């Protein structure tokens, strides 16, 4: 997609603060962060929205989700709860906005990973 901002970032036509990259995804800092940590996990393939995904994207979506806790940990907002989720500190949000009513502004699939010490926008 020649006019897509995230395709341009993925192909390095536009610079970004990249924190992780492999053959399938690129992860960079959101230009307008909602919190101390705000990463975007972006597939290199141009897929407009989560609603455009099918079975063939299962592995990619799994990779994106599993990257979130690792990247959050590296960015300083990992969750350190026990096996049962008790007594933990830290943590982060994972978010796919889909379509206009879902608040999507960039129509290239991306997973927001948002966290850091509270309070921040949208967090009490
Ligand atoms: P959406 O609302 O589509 O889920 O989120 C799009 C996100 O992309 C927004 O949080 C916005 O700040 C971010 N964004 C838009 N353009 C750019 C850009 O050129 N570079 C970076 N790093 N982030 C962008
Ligand atoms: Zn794109």
UniProtKB/TrEMBL annotation:
Motif (Histidine triad motif): 108-112
Active site: 110 (tele-amp-histidine intermediate)
GO molecular function annotation: catalytic activity
Ranges of residues in domain HIT: 5-124
PANTHER family: HISTIDINE TRIAD HIT PROTEIN
Name the UniProt record assigns to this protein: Histidine triad nucleotide-binding protein
The organism of origin for this protein: Noviherbaspirillum galbum
């Amino acid at each position: 997609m020649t006019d897509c901002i995230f395709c341009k970032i993925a192909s390095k036509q536009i610079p970004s603060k990249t924190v992780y990259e492999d053959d399938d995804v690129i992860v960079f800092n959101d230009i307008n962060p909602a919190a101390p940590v705000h990463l975007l996990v972006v597939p290199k393939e141009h897929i407009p929205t989560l609603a455009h995904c099918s079975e063939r994207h299962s592995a990619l979506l799994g990779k994106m989700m599993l990257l979130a806790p690792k990247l959050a940990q590296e960015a300083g907002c990992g969750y350190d709860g026990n096996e049962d989720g008790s007594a933990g500190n830290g943590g982060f949000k994972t978010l796919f906005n889909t379509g206009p009513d879902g608040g999507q502004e960039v129509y290239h699939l991306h997973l927001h990973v948002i966290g850091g010490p509270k309070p921040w926008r949208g967090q009490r």
